[in-house]
Every structure is written in C-alpha cells, then in structure tokens.
C-alpha cells in the first residue's frame, strides 16, 4: 500500500531541485595541479563559495566565503561566477556590489579574497589587495563606476581586469589603480522608457537564451586589447512585466525580440585596453544578424555569424590591425545550422574546430573535414588542450547515455573516456589532466525514495521511454493503473537518460500516488542525430505529439505486465512540455483524458526570434507553420479537464500565452482551471508555492480521472 509522501515537493523547493551543494564552474590551473570551483556548504545552502582543491591529494581550501566577505548581506547571495587569467592563479569575482580578487601562489596557500576600491572615496570593508605605488601609474586616473561591477574577467597575463558597469565596459589594473571606461554609450543612447538603448560588453537576450553565448567581450592573449560587442536594442520591441499582486509597483520595462520582429543590432569593436584606439570589425550585418560566438587566441580574433534564417553560418578571422575579416569556414543547411556549445575553436597549431552534420551523425570537424567516426553524435566541445579536444557525445547504440571523448587532432584518433552508463556531459582538460564533476565531492541532498524506473526503446521508431512504477506495485498482478505522461519532449534537452535528475524524482513521486508514469523522447529531442532533430521543422507539435501517442500504445502492447489503463490517461508538462500537454487534450481527446500544463507557449508569435524561427521560420515566410502551431485556435475543441499554470512575472514564456488561452476557452464556453503563480517567473522557487503547485496537480488529476487518493481518502 502506498503512503502519501508530500516531503519530496518540499525537498525539491528547499534544495532548488537538488542543485544546492553541487560543485560547478571548474577551472584547472595551467599546470593541472589545482581545480577551482564554486559550491555551497550544504544541500539547502544557496550561498556559493569559491574553493580550490589539489587534484592529487584532494585537499580543499576555502578561498572566498561571501558570509565573511559581505556580512551585511546576511548570506543572501553567493559568488555567482568568477574568472581567471591564463595561469588560473589570479581570480576575480563580483560580490555585494564590489570587485574582489584572489591570488594563489604555487603551493595554493595564503590565498585571501580582497576588494578593489574602485571609488577612491569609498571605505572598503576589508584591506586592499595592495598598497598603490608612490609613483602614479602610467594609466588614466581612476574614475568611479556608475553602477556595481559585474562579470569581471582578468586579462590572460593577469595584469588587468575588465568588468561591466551598467552599459559601460571598464578596465582596472590588478592593484586597483587606473580604473577607466574603455567603451561607453553616448549620452543620447542612455536612459529612456525601456532603459539604455546601447551597451558594451554584454550579450543580447537571444545570445543567452538560445545561442549558448553568455559573454560580450574577449581579451587578446597579451592583455593589451579587447574584442567588444556593442548591442543596440533601440529597434527591439518593448514589453512590460508587472506584478498584479502589488499595483503600487511600477511595471518593469524590457526589450524582447519576438518572432518576426527586429533583433538587437550587434556589432564588434577592437578596443585598446587604455581606450586610446577603436576599430570596428567588418562583416555584412544585414546578411548575418546573429553573432553566435567569438574569441581571441594566439592566431588572432575570430567570430562566428549566422543568417537570420539560420541556414548559413560563417566563421571569420579578424585582422586585429584594421578589423577586416576573412572567411575560414561556411556551413549551410536547408532547415537550420545547429549551434554546438564550445564551437568554433582552434587548437594550439591553429587547426579550426567546427562541426558537420552528415546523415544521422553530428561530427566534430577539423579544418572542414569530419574528424570523429559515424555513430557518436557531438553534443558539446568542453575543452581544447593543445592538440587534444575534450567533447561530450551520445552514442547511437546507447541514446540513454552521454559520454566524454578525446580527439587527438594530429593522429585523428578518438578515445572514449567514460564507459559506465550515465550522463557524462561535463569535464575539464588541461595540461593533460582530466577532471570530471564526480571527482569533486558534492554536498547536495539525496532525494527521498528510490527510482523504480525502466528505460525502454519502443515502437517502430525505437522511441526512448522511461517507465516509472510505484514501489508497491507488482508487475503482472493484473491490477490496471492510470497512466500519466510526464514529458518535456522539446528540442532543448533529453528527458529520458541513464542519469538521475530532479524531474525523474517528480515522476517517481507521481508514480507513488498510484500512476504508471511515462517520460518519452520523440522526434526533435537532441541526442538521436541531425535528421531526428529536424523532423520538427515547420511543425513543433505534430511529430512530438504523435510520438507520445505511439510510445504510450507501444508500451501497453509490448509490456502488458506494467498494467497501463488506456481508459485513464493524463499528461503533465512545463514550458514546451506544457505546450505539448495543452496540444494533447485539445487535439487528441480520444487518447488523453486530462492535462496539467504549465508555462506553455500558445501563440508562437510571442516567443523569441532565434529559438522560434529556427523551427518555424520567419512568420512572414511561413505563416502556415505558425497557424498550425497556434493552440488558441484549438480552444473550442476542448472537452477534457485542463489545468493551466503560469508564473505571472515569467519573462521567458510570457504569461500572456496562458492568459490568452484561458480567455479563448472561456469565450468558447469550455470550463477549465487556472492556477496563477504570483511572484514567480519561469521557474517556481518559493518553497510553499512549489510544494502547493505539485499537490494541486495531484488533486486535479485525481478529480479529472475519477480516482480515489491512495490511503482511502475520497
């Protein structure tokens, strides 16, 4: 007999989905002897500290503790990110509105975080890193930044630190002297209803949302110059985000490039670290709107550019003398060119690393030639160490696992580094030292309960499916259980893997309440190769929904011992999974008898340019694709119970999507439930709210399917 276990929903919220206490952002020092990383002290502690760990002995040292450095914050925020010079021994980070530095010696001792006093009139909360020299430095005089520093990054030589302050990019010497602006907007480009129109050194929205590019400036190897992005959002559509629970708070103004509307105007400049000279990088910005990646190595600056229709990518070398460009590589595809994290890159010898899609395999390519064998699908390039390349890939024969591989560029040999089934998707390689996350202890909490999960490949398309059974259920007993589909099924992530992620524990929790829970990865989900991903071109719902249905029926037919009751089938999901759940009850009520849908996109015009146009094209060129994926048109067809949920301050999938669907359902006379999540964004982080949302979904599913909660309550 099952017991009600409401502790998992609370645990999920308290641990931020088991992410607290997990080590991350690993950096190896140049000799491979020491790894730097961020980690909080426990599974419910949200404050990340900076640590160093000796690779050979495992000895750890706390380098920076936010509670000690900024006690006035009361432990509310941690070190969100840090950066180092080439040696890995000079470290910079931002905390509590200040810029901090740490310096390691060769024995990893006497390393203490110090604040840099950027404003000479300010009183630092601790001692300065160094006493300024008696002779004034040969740099411009210090001028205080207008806003707190963010994203500090030492130059490769460790002499200077660049950082962003509002829309301005600034540089300061390592000892805190000579703080100056090196790239700043004109006065007319600042302020306004939607904030600053122009900024330097920051990535634009679509870069962080769907291009894997989270930075907007890059140092030259000698630390004398920077490659800096200038972002002009004056032409981007404006939106307002309000909290309806507090009408006294002014709505937040944002710029959002919705599908079919103008993007930010992104350009690049070569800028001297003393701000003495600036040169613009030349390319056809009308033909290539998207700056997908950039970098600067010993062979010079380079950029990767993508056309608005995403069918062409150019990699260009940049002449650091005058900003002119020369094409290094081109890739084209009739649907879209997929962007791979970590690419393009170059080896020490200058070999250019890109990727090539050939048939069912995404290859790592060297100088335009596939360098990895067929049958392993490249997921990300993690590190380039001399002529060795560390990358993550999914083998065709085992799509449930991700493994680490190393390519030796001179010989062309590819070596698999991980062999145990699981998701090995992260690692660092430097000076011949390979470090994986499992090599550093985690302080995360363990989920309550165990998974009772079977991974299957079912149906004609060998659909990857996870089946979660209650711990108390006896397969083959003849007892038939209601079915709950719990997919993501979108092109962002694989849901069905050998790994254990928080979503698996949610599926198991629902199983314990009396369901057979299925998670299904269909067409469009990464990991099965380029052709599989592009099956959803111009139709993001049709193939994905059909694969959910086919896998459901295949599991019932091929595994009758699981006791699936196809007369009681529900589906739940969030984000793309929420859209899919809505589509399921609206379009296939013959299969799905109820749906709980959160934060789904219902009108495809409301989502951003780069992500939405990748799959559906530009609305002006492919209006039929947008109409076919418009769930608002399906509202009159609803005849099954539907629960809608949405965070009211969601700035990723705007709540207008769910509000408009609710309005369309009401106008069509279709009853439904709507759960507004006040104060929540795309992810619900409040403990009580997160727990209550899961419990409400469970109650809704019981009512919608006519079930009695296990334990006897009606």
Structure write-up:
With 714 residues, the chain is α+β, with helices and mostly antiparallel strands. It is built from 11 helices and 41 strands. The strands form 10 sheets. An 8-stranded mixed beta sheet has the order 34-35-37-36-38-39-40-41, sandwiched between helices. Strands 13, 14, 15, 18 and 19 form a 5-stranded antiparallel beta sheet that branches. Strand 24 (345-346) and strand 25 form a beta hairpin.
In a few lines, what is going on in this structure?
The chain is α+β, with helices and mostly antiparallel strands. It has 11 helices and 41 strands. It is globular.
CATH class call of the domain at 453-705: Alpha Beta
Between the first and last Cα atoms, what is the distance in angstroms?
A: 16 Å
Strand content: 25-35%
> What oligomerization state is this entry in?
single chain
Largest sheet: 8 strands, mixed
Number of helices: 11
The coarse overall form would be globular
Class derived from helix and strand content: alpha+beta
The CATH H-level superfamily of the domain at 453-705 is Alpha/Beta hydrolase fold, catalytic domain
Low-confidence stretches: 1-6, 119-143
**Count of distinct strands:** 41
Whole-number mean pLDDT: 92
CATH fold call of the domain at 453-705: Rossmann fold
Cα-atom radius of gyration: 26 Å
> Strand order of the main beta sheet, please?
34-35-37-36-38-39-40-41
Percent in helix = 10-25%
CATH architecture of the domain at 453-705: 3-Layer(aba) Sandwich
Index terms:
714 residues, alpha+beta, Rossmann fold, eight-stranded mixed β-sheet, five-stranded antiparallel β-sheet, 15% helix, disordered N terminus
């Amino acid at each position: 007999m099952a017991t009600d276990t409401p502790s998992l929903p609370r645990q999920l919220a308290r641990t931020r989905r088991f992410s607290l206490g997990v080590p991350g952002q690993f950096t190896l020092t140049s000799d491979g002897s020491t790894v730097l990383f961020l980690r909080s002290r426990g599974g419910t502690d949200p404050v990340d500290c900076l640590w160093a760990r000796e690779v050979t002995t495992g000895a750890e040292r706390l380098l920076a503790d936010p509670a000690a450095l900024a006690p006035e914050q009361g432990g509310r925020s941690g070190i969100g990110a840090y950066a180092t010079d080439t040696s890995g021994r000079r470290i910079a980070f931002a905390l509590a509105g200040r810029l901090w530095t740490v310096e390691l010696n060769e024995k990893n001792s006497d390393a203490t975080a110090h604040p840099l006093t950027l404003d000479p009139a300010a009183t630092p909360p601790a001692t300065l890193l160094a006493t300024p020299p008696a002779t004034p430095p040969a740099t411009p005089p210090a001028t205080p930044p207008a806003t707190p520093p963010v994203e500090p990054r030492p130059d490769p030589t460790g002499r200077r630190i660049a950082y962003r302050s509002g829309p301005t990019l600034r540089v300061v010497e390592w000892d805190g002297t000579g703080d100056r602006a090196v790239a700043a907007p004109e006065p007319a480009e600042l302020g306004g209803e939607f904030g600053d129109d122009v900024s330097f050194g920051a990535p634009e929205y679509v870069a962080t949302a769907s291009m894997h590019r989270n930075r907007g400036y890059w140092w030259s190897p000698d630390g004398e110059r920077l490659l800096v992005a200038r972002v002009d959002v004056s032409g981007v559509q404006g939106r307002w985000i309000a909290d309806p629970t507090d009408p006294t708070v002014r709505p937040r103004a944002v710029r959002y490039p919705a599908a079919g509307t103008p993007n930010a105007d992104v350009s690049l400049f070569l800028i001297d670290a003393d701000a003495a000279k600036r040169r613009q990088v030349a390319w056809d910005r009308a033909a290539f709107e998207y700056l997908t990646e950039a970098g600067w190595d010993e062979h010079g600056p380079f950029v990767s550019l993508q056309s608005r229709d995403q069918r062409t990518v150019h990699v260009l070398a940049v002449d650091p003398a005058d900003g002119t460009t020369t094409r290094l590589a081109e890739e084209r595809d009739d649907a879209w060119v997929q962007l791979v994290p970590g690419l393009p890159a170059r080896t020490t010898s200058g070999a250019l690393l890109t990727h090539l899609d050939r048939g069912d395999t995404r290859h790592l390519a060297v100088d335009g030639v596939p360098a990895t064998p067929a049958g392993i699908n490249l997921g990300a390039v993690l590190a380039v160490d001399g002529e060795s390349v560390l990358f993550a890939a999914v083998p065709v024969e085992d799509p449930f696992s991700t493994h680490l591989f190393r390519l030796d560029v001179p010989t062309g040999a590819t070596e698999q580094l991980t062999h145990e089934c699981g998701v090995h998707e992260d690692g660092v390689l430097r000076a011949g030292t390979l470090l994986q996350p499992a090599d550093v202890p985690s302080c995360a909490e363990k989920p309550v309960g165990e998974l009772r999960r079977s991974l299957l490949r079912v149906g004609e398309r060998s659909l990857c499916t996870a089946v979660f059974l209650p711990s108390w259920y006896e397969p083959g007993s003849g007892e038939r259980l209601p079915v709950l589909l719990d997919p993501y099924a979108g092109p962002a992530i694989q849901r069905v893997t050998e790994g254990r992620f928080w979503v698996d524990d949610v599926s198991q929790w629902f199983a314990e309440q009396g369901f057979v829970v299925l998670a299904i990865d269909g067409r469009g989900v990464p990991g099965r190769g380029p052709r599989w991903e592009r099956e959803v071109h111009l139709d993001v719902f049709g193939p994905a929904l059909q694969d959910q249905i086919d896998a459901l029926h295949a599991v019932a037919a091929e595994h009758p011992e699981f006791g699936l009751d196809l007369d009681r089938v529900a589906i739940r999901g969030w984000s793309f999974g929420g859209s899919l759940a809505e589509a399921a009850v609206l379009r296939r009520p013959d299969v799905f008898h109820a749906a709980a849908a959160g934060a789904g996109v219902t009108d495809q015009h409301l989502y951003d340019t780069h992500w939405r146009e990748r799959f559906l094209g530009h609305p002006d060129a492919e209006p039929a694709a947008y109409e076919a994926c418009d769930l608002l048109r399906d509202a009159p067809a609803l005849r099954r119970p539907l629960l809608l949920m949405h965070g009211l301050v969601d700035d990723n999938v705007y709540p207008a999507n769910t509000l408009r669907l609710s309005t369309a359902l009401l106008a069509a006379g279709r009853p439904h439930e709507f759960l507004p999540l006040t104060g929540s964004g795309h992810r619900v982080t409040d403990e009580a709210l997160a727990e209550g949302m899961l419990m409400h979904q469970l109650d809704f599913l019981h009512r919608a399917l006519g079930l009695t909660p296990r334990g006897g309550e009606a």
